[in-house]
Specification:
- With about 675 residues, the chain is α+β, with helices and mostly antiparallel strands.
- It has three domains: about 80 residues, Phosphorylase Kinase, domain 1 (2-Layer Sandwich); about 210 residues, Transferase(Phosphotransferase) domain 1 (Transferase(Phosphotransferase), domain 1, Orthogonal Bundle), CATH 1.10.510.10; about 325 residues, YVTN repeat-like/Quinoprotein amine dehydrogenase (Methylamine Dehydrogenase, Chain H, 7 Propeller).
- It is built from nine helices and 36 strands.
- The strands form nine sheets. It has a six-stranded antiparallel β-sheet. A four-stranded antiparallel β-sheet has the order 9-36-35-34, with no helix packed on it. A four-stranded antiparallel β-sheet has the order 10-11-12-13, with no helix packed on it.
- β34 and β35 form a beta hairpin.
- α4 packs antiparallel against α9.
- The longest helix has 20 residues.
- The radius of gyration is 27 Å and the shape is elongated.
- The relative contact order is 0.08.
Length: about 675
């Protein structure tokens, strides 16, 4: 995904006009750009702290010169560079096509024949790199683009000449652990055999959907790479033999790229060669493999999946798109598990797990058309997701502390966010740019903990400290302040007709406060039996019922003010709940927020049938094992009620795999 240029980004690098951000890695920022002749290219600009080192510039120049020599059909060409610029830069060719990571995530694993043919193309690309005296050092599914004419190896950002001093200090590990060779992890001398090891891991991923050394923690991955045999489930026959040989712990025991090519050559017909006479882009995926989406015909096939399964893939993937390989990168592939959109999934079965936030995810909101999902987290970012593909559209940075609330304008053009930094911000969803800071608050506890937009888009309800401010969107000014709560505002919502505002706070007793939306006049207070507070408030789709979530979900009839029922389940506390649009169903979730508790419900969401008061369905999130207790902080339904999102977090996690968004498709 191309993000807009920031205010500090250059607009021109050498003769290349920059158009947007593609990603960032350990060495610098990568941009989409146009050459003077109008060709699309990717420009990597080196970080200033590296550029200030004379030794780095010399090594950068040597390795760029070597990379320029890499040719062949299976690599991306270096087309320009300037090692003497104030900020050294490197320009590479633009390669259309999805990455192997995306193909497997969206369409499932590849057939054995397809993997063997993929291996032939990658081995040829590695051979071209090695002939120039380079070792790639970061071959992984995200660095393999499946162009229409075959696979391309991208990102020479960490390529290195064997025997030469590395660009980084001695002992630094460069690459992605799940695909590194043992000697690379130990920071020993690397050789072309290191790339062969990575090739084996990449082919195993293509066939099985995971790294052969996959684990839930980096130390566990490192241990498996260096000390344990690979897990090669799903591989058999010639493919199993080849991958096993590539993954030998001893570099001397691995085949050379020439030997790999000899086994996989597509020009001959011996039994040890891969599917002679079958066009590269006609090779099918494994029958029944992958998430299970029904293939749909497409006029633009992916090169290693069948023509019938490539419709959902992006037509273009930029050369450095999604670059994340830095000095200490430790990304474990397979974090996004998207199950496609062709066939209805089994009821209650997760369809996607979105990873990107590095700390707790505290809030979620679907766009008015249901095509996008916004999330805010304790990593100070707001992220916008494409619901159909599960990919990040953009990441908004501007908050300087935890993002606690997000809300869309009804027209879908604007997103509001509030944070612990005491600011209310507005983002333009059409351009991806920040629009303004709507308000800043000076209270000691003036964090913006909750947000709601009226159905007509004219009014914002902002939960600030222990009050709610009603703000006119057109002026940005508050016309009413709702006070009286005995603690910080936990949640605020408008009724479906926009006439009422409901709020709940962290105060003694389960209370829902009701206000007139046009004047801010206090109307009534609904009090439950529990001494514990409500954490969320929700109106039924028909506007006749209001409920509070916390000690179960308690419901009141708005017309009479009388309690209707209390919904309970195995969760000891329900901090988040939402009504399903168009139906009498409520989703509620909870879980442990402290380690070593006895609560085993952290991964589950209950769906209550309000008419009966009983749980009709229990949805279970998919999280890594042995990563601490799980808890859910937010749930949200899409406007059509067909998709449910929940933010799953794990206690004491510092890696992004401990914080993700789970999506379910509902019947």
């Amino acid at each position: 995904m191309v993000e807009p240029l920031g205010p500090r980004d250059p607009r021109q690098v050498g003769p290349y006009r920059l158009e947007g951000r593609l990603g960032a890695g350990g060495m610098g920022q990568v941009y989409l750009a146009s050459s003077p002749g109008g060709r699309k290219v990717a420009v990597k600009v080196i970080r200033p702290e590296l550029a200030d080192t004379p030794q780095f510039r010399a090594r950068f120049a040597r390795e760029v010169d070597a990379a320029r020599q890499v040719g062949g059909f299976h690599t991306a060409q270096v087309v320009d560079a300037d090692s003497g610029a104030a900020s050294p830069w490197l320009v590479t060719a633009y390669i259309p096509g999805p990455t192997l990571q995306q193909v497997v995530a969206e369409n499932g694993t590849l057939s054995s024949d397809a993997v063997l043919r993929l291996g032939a193309g990658l081995a040829e690309g590695l051979a071209a790199i090695h002939r120039c005296g380079l070792v790639h050092r970061d071959l992984k599914p995200g660095n393999v683009i499946l162009a229409e004419d075959g696979p391309r190896i991208i990102d020479f950002g960490v390529a290195h000449a064997p025997g030469a001093e590395a660009m980084t200090r001695t002992g630094t590990v460069i690459g992605t652990y799940a695909y590194m060779s043992p000697e690379q992890i130990r920071a020993d001398r690397v050789s072309p055999a290191s790339d062969v090891f990575a090739l084996g891991s990449v082919l195993a991923f293509a066939a099985s959907g995971r790294s052969p050394f996959d684990a839930t923690t980096v130390p566990a991955i490192v241990h498996r790479v260096t000390s344990e045999p690979p897990v090669l489930d799903g591989l058999s026959g010639r493919l199993h033999v080849l991958v096993t040989a590539c993954l030998a712990k001893d570099p001397a025991g691995r085949p050379s790229t020439a030997e790999v090519l000899n086994r996989l050559s597509v020009t001959g017909g011996s039994g040890d060669r891969a599917a002679p006479g079958v066009p590269f882009n006609d090779l099918p995926t494994e029958p029944g493999s992958g998430p299970g989406a029904t293939p749909t015909p497409s006029p633009t096939p992916s090169p290693v999946v069948s023509k019938t399964s490539a419709r959902r893939l992006p037509r273009r993937t930029l050369l450095f798109g999604g670059l994340a390989a830095g000095v200490t990168a430790a990304a474990v592939p397979g974090y996004l598990v998207w199950r496609g959109s062709g066939a209805d999934p089994d009821p209650g079965k997760p369809v996607a797990r979105l990873g990107g936030h590095t700390h707790e995810i505290g809030c979620l909101a679907f766009g008015p058309d249901g095509k996008t999902l916004a999330s805010g987290g304790d990593d100070d970012t707001v992220r916008l997701w494409d619901v159909a593909t599960g990919r990040t559209i953009t990441t908004y940075r501007g908050h300087t502390d935890n993002v606690m609330s997000v809300a869309y304008a009804p027209d879908g053009r604007t997103l509001y966010s509030g944070g612990f930094d005491k600011t209310l911000r507005r983002w333009d969803l059409r351009t991806g740019r920040p629009m303004s800071v709507v308000a800043s608050y000076t209270d000691e506890f003036g964090h913006v903990g909750s947000l709601a937009v009226s159905p007509d888009g004219a009014t914002l309800a902002v939960g600030v400290a222990n009050r709610v401010e009603l703000v006119t969107v057109s002026t940005g000014r508050a016309f009413a302040t709702l006070t009286g709560h005995g603690g910080s505002i936990n949640d605020v919502v408008f009724s479906p007709d926009g006439k009422l505002v409901a709020s709940v706070a962290s105060e003694t007793g389960a209370k829902i406060w009701l206000w007139a939306a046009d004047t801010g006049r206090h109307l009534k207070k609904l009090t439950g039996e529990s001494t514990d507070h409500f954490n969320a408030v929700l109106f039924s789709p028909d506007g006749k019922t209001v409920g509070g979530a916390g000690p179960g979900v308690q419901l009141w009839d708005l017309a009479t003010g009388r309690p209707e029922k209390t919904l309970t389940d195995s969760h000891p506390y329900v901090p988040t709940a939402a009504y399903r649009p168009g139906s009498a169903v409520i989703a509620g979730a909870g879980g442990a927020r402290e380690p070593n508790t006895d609560d085993q419900t952290g991964k589950t969401v209950s769906l209550w049938d309000v008419s009966t008061g009983s749980v009709s369905t229990t949805l279970t999130g998919v999280m890594p094992k042995s990563r601490g207790d799980t808890y859910i902080t937010a749930v949200a339904f899409s406007p059509d009620g067909r998709t449910l999102a929940a933010s799953l977090n794990q206690v004491a996690m510092t890696e992004e795999s401990g914080h993700s968004i789970q999506l379910w498709k509902l019947p």
